[in-house]
Every structure is written in structure tokens, then in C-alpha cells.
Amino acid sequence: MTQNDHPDDPARAYDRRSILTGAGSIGIGSVIGSSGVVTATPSREPGPKDDELILGISPSATDVAGEARAAVPGNADVVHANESIHYAVVSFPSDAPAHAREDVIDAVTRSPAVEYAEPNVTVASLLKPNDPYYDFQHAPKQIGCETAWETTRGSEDVVIAVVDQGIQYDHPALEATVDDRIGTDLLDADDDPYPASGADHGTHVGGIAAGGSDDGTGHAGISDCSLLSVRALNENGVGSLSDIADAIQWAADAGADIVNLSLGVDGSYDTLTAACEYAADHGVLLVGAAGNDGSDRVYSPAAEDSVVAVSAVDSDDSLASFSNTGSAIELAAPGSRLVSSVTGDEYARMSGTSMAAPVVAGVAGLVLSAYPDLSRTELREHLRATAADLGLRDTQQGYGRVDAAAAVETDPFPDESDPDEEPGECGDEAITASASGSLDGSGWWGESDRYSYSLNTATPCSATITLEGPANADFDLYVTTDGSKPTRWEHDASSAGAGTSESITVPLEGDEEIRLQVHAVSGSGEYTLRLEERGR
Q1: Is residue 282 within 8 Å of residue 252, measured between CB atoms?
Q2: Could you state, in order of their start, the residue ranges of all structural domains in the chain?
Q3: 491 catalytic per annotation
């Protein structure tokens, strides 16, 4: 077995539908009240921040703001904290010299309660310039929505949250699909996510994912699912890293099934990772825009393992010239010259991976409407499995261009069993492999090791993987058989009981490529991993 990488992959079981019970009567204030976000100081201005630092606080801490204050010297203030994602925001005086800021970073990172420190960077919407309005839509036909709509136009029980500039929730094309709770505003903290005049991006994105179709009004969205508006970008299409993280967490706590993130920042930030993993742990499918500078790097949060990264294609299924590409790309979608709603009860064309991402979010909503028992992992895998191969490179299209018709018309739970077929028995041929390592689960998310294994028997029958770890610890085991990277929420088989003795047996046909993940949930120490492959 070959060790491949060593990332962190959190996941916890979560029943998304329990949040939605009686959702029509839940007030916005009551949802915010349970969000775990601590209100910022009244004098703190919304939007991008140039003089702030985000501190990741250990999840074992019971008072995030208190731990941050204890770690921060006197020349900086704790102005905001998020108890759910475990971070606090520190503000510097505007006239603080550079060395004072360096002293703060040195001081806080020495605290055992501080996991990381990073700037509260600015995150921007990912949009290409507007084109003149026209009354023809190619995207729904391009991805087969007409066929999918014969089965479902989207259920109001499926909630798509749009983290953006806010959605004009009284727009004629959207008012029928906006969730009764409407959403929240993390910029002004007034619970009203109505966009500023001319701030069209969020309304356009929301209208693509879930604009009323076949209603004689405006355009047709990909689905008629419910929209939640989470305002975290200002009228210029930018917002702070902490506001975006809070928005993602709020959407997860509000029971969103899908969160669309048509925004991004170049680079990787632990606060964004934590927010996305928090939502994924709560059963949310996150969909992100790859970026629009035509480079070979995917912007965050789309680049996160917990997010479906979407590239953009033109109406002829060729790669859009502006679309970013890279190994993180998972799906492609139409993103050029898409017609949707904008503020002022109007309509316009826009281009960008910002437009491609809500196409995928809308299709995910259609699939979940048709198959409501799909888990987040199953939904993500189904979108991959039914995507159309455009003949582009994997770094350009991932698994392919999203296909609404195939995704809705293909049963994700086919019954392939034959009651008259006798199961094959494994013979005496056996090959074993082993590996060992050491992990520490006392950090923020716990460490992970991954391994790969290629089949060696002439006629493979089964593989049994066993894990033995240290006492007084909790290590889990995850397996994939298709060569994909296993994570705590993306795997074919798992053993995640208490303790460090885990075992998994998977059947083999001969074309599998086995990959394994060992994850330290708590405790630390050395472990031994053993794989026995048996042939017929």
C-alpha cells in the first residue's frame, strides 16, 4: 500500500429534514438565534475588512471569544466570534504600525487555544461583464431540463441557499420560489437580505437556480425549489472572509439542502475550510464557482474538497474562455450569456462561472426533489455519474457537463440483485499487505493518512481491511474501490465505531482500485493497517 496524502476530512451524521419540520412557521429571528454566531460590536462596519485577523480557536474551548481575548495583547480588540465554526475576529487600530500587527500574530499563535491565524481577506463575486438582454435561453435546453421537468420541476421542500449580494425576493420571476423565511442579512444585521439598488449578481444567480418556470413570467429557472437569500456581499460584490464563513454556517443551520457559492478568493483559508466542512457535516451539498480569469487554478471555496467546483462552458459545450480550470473541477455547466432576473423587476444576460454554479445547484435541486432520500454523498456521486462527457480534459470538465435529463431520469438506487444467483465463493488464494503510521486526533479536525492498493490475485473475490490503533483513542476507516480519494463523507464503505479496532470487507470483480483513509477522531498514537485480498 502506498501512502498518498495527509489532509483533514470532518463529517458527522445529520438529519437535514429535522430542520425543515414546520419550516413555514419559523421566523428569521428564531433561526438566527440558534446559529451560533456572536453579534459583532455595534461600531463594526459591514463588508470587506483591511485591518482584521481571524483566529481559529480549538473546538474544545467553551468560550471562543474569551479564549481569543486571552490570547490577544492590549493593542487589538476581539470584534466578532462564531461559536459553531470556532473562530474569532481581531481588529487592529487603523493607525497600528506593521510591527504591532506582527507582534499580535506572534502572540496569539503561541496560545494553545489558537489553531491558526489568517487575514480577514476580501471575497468577491465571480462574474463577467453584463451583455445586453435577450429573450432566448440556451442553458435549460443544453442540459436537458425539458426532459427532467416531465418528472419534476422541483419541490418547495428542497431548499437552495444563495450566499451572495442578496436576492430581490419580490421579483415577479422569483417571489413564488422564495422560501417563507426569505433569509438573512449578515452585512447590516437587519434580517432583511434585500439587495442594494443595482446589485444584480445575487438576484441573477438565484434566478438561474430556482426561478419560476412555466408560469408565464420572465425566464425559466433550472428548478422551482425554494430559495433562501443569504446576503454577505455588498453592492460592489465583495465581502469579508468572516462574513462568508458565517453565511455558510447560517445556511447549514437553517436547513438548506444546497448552498450556492458564486464567489471566490485566490488562495486557501482555514476559516473557509472550516465553514464548508461544517456545512458538509450537516448534510449540505455545496456548489462553488471556479473563477473567471482563465487560469489553471480554482478559487476557494470551490477548491475545497467539500465543495463541487464548477467550470463554465459556452452554448456549444466548448470551454468558456474566461473559465478557470484545474484538478479540483468536478462538473462543468453552461455559464455564457445566461438570461435571468436582475433587480428592478428586470432581466439580463450575464456570463461567468458565477452563472454555471447555480445551474448545477438547480439540477441538484431537481434530483433531490425526485429522489428525496438521497444523502449528500449520494447526490454528489449521482451528479458525477450522470454527467455528459464533452471530450474536454478532466481539469476542464471534471466528470463532465451536468445533465439534468440523465440525473433525473436515471434511478440512483437500481435493484441489480438477482434472487436466483448464488454468490461466488472465495478460494484459497490470498495476498496480504500492511502499513503502519501515527496520527494525532487532538487538533481541530484530527489528522488523516491515505493509502492506495492495486489488486494482485488472478481472479479477485474480496478484500478485508483491518485497523488496529492505540487504546484510549478513536480512529475511523474509510474505503473507495473506484480509485477516487476517500473522505469522511465520500466513500464506498466505512467503519467508524468507537475505539480504534475497525474492519471492512468489500467484494471484488477485478477492476477495482482500492484507496483507504485512516482518520483520527480523538486521541493519538500508532496504528497498523492490514489488507487481505482473496481470489476465487
Answers
A1: yes
A2: 52-119, 134-409, 423-535
A3: no
Q: Among the options 80, 201, 219, 382, which is catalytic?
A: 201
Q: Which CATH number fits domain 423-535: 3.10.20.880, 2.60.120.380, 3.40.1350.10, 2.60.40.770?
A: 2.60.120.380
- Annotated active-site residue 99? The verdict is no
Fold that domain 134-409 belongs to in CATH: Rossmann fold (3.40.50)
Could you tell me the sign of the dihedral formed by the alpha carbons of 316, 317, 321, 322, in that order?
Answer: positive
Give the pLDDT confidence of 139-181 residue by residue, as tens digits: 888 998 888 988 999 999 999 999 999 999 999 999 999 999 9
| DSSP one-letter code for 319 | B
DSSP string, 263-317: EEBSS--HHHHHHHHHHHHTTPEEEEE--SS--S-PPBTTTSTTEEEEEEE-TTS
Query: Among 229, 340, 354, 369, which one carries the catalytic annotation?
Result: 354
Q: Is 164 a catalytic residue?
A: yes
pLDDT tens digit string along 487-527? 877 889 998 888 888 899 999 998 899 999 998 888 899 99
Give the CA distances from residue 44 to residues 35, 97, 187, 188, in Å, rounded to whole numbers and listed in that order. 20, 21, 10, 10
**Could you tell me if 337 and 312 are in contact, meaning their C-beta atoms sit under 8 angstroms apart?**
no
